[in-house]
Amino acid sequence: xxxxxxxxxxxxxxxxxxxxxxxxxxxxxxxxxxxxxxxxxxxxxxxxxxxxxxxxxxxxxxxxxxxxxxxxxxxxxxxxxxxxxxxxxxxxxxxxxxxxxxxxxxxxxxxxxxxxxxxxxxxxxxxxxxxxxxxxxxxxxxxxxxxxxxxxxxxxxxxxxxxxxxxxxxxxxxxxxxxxxxxxxxxxxxxxxxxxxxxxxxxxxxxxxxxxxxxxxxxxxxxxxxxxxxxxxxxxxxxxxxxxxxxxxxxxxxxxxxxxxxxxxxxxxxxxxxxxxxxxxxxxxxxxxxxxxxxxxxxxxxxxxxxxxxxxxxxx
Length: 316
Ligand code: UDP
Ligand code: MG
Fold this sequence. Notes:
- The chain is built from 10 helices and 8 strands.
- The protein is an alpha/beta fold.
- It has 2 domains: 9-231 and 309-315, Spore Coat Polysaccharide Biosynthesis Protein SpsA, Chain A, CATH 3.90.550; 235-305.
- An 8-stranded mixed beta sheet has the order 7-5-6-4-1-2-3-8, with helices on both faces.
- Helix 2 links the parallel strand 2 and strand 3 (71-76).
- Helix 9 packs antiparallel against helix 10 (272-305).
- It is elongated.
- Bound molecules: uridine-5'-diphosphate (UDP) and magnesium ion.
């Protein structure tokens, strides 16, 4: 529902930017076109978050802000990551509705009017962008991503949809729910389904980035997925304990067998090779289990430090 008060911001566009000097002018053009198609008297705002960019992103932002009074920006003191940038945007947004989208035009702004209509009409609380396919992505990456989604859905209570992106448009209630989560290790792909509400999906083509390059390496993605699993599930701990019990039972059986062999056949001790294999197997499993434990301990450690999510150097 559009508010009657005309000074009220109608829609806030939250845009995290890391080294996006080349994409930003294109993005601003496209997004402005989309906003001009909205049927509202109320103003919209842009909230750009410069996530400690090392290129000329800030100069471009200052330039754009000088031409367009709808633009506000927040600049971080260093790179804090997309999650921190999104959070800063959500905390700053004043709109009745809020959209989060990437600066590289991989999340097509022309879909905004349609998504807004679904949320404003009350049909849903959140309109989510969903990539139709993983075209243009290395096959191994697609394969691992699919396995990750399958695993997440198995071991967590939340339903994660393959292809669902951070491209979202939602109402005030939904935004407040997102910012009410106080955890440091934010994992939006899990937080969106966790807060619940009604989500309607809008499919879009997976297009190549318009300019600049992606800042996600394979290793970064891998660590991000471990983060996601440990943020939303404690099942790995249960799996580790279960393996421990299983090994203990196996050990009991083998001990029984060895004793029986000694008594019945009087076999001399033999087979140091098999002993070494067993020791290696067990110590490997132990390290694996300790590693899992460590992941959760590390999470608790970061949370208890209560450090700020980001530090701001400049705002407009
Ligand atoms: N981004 C950010 N901080 C980072 C990395 C990325 O704010 O540390 C922004 C980036 O500018 C872009 C969005 O997050 O607007 C998505 O990043 P990217 O396009 O690199 O990821 P991909 O589309 O390849 O998943
Ligand atoms: Mg991108």
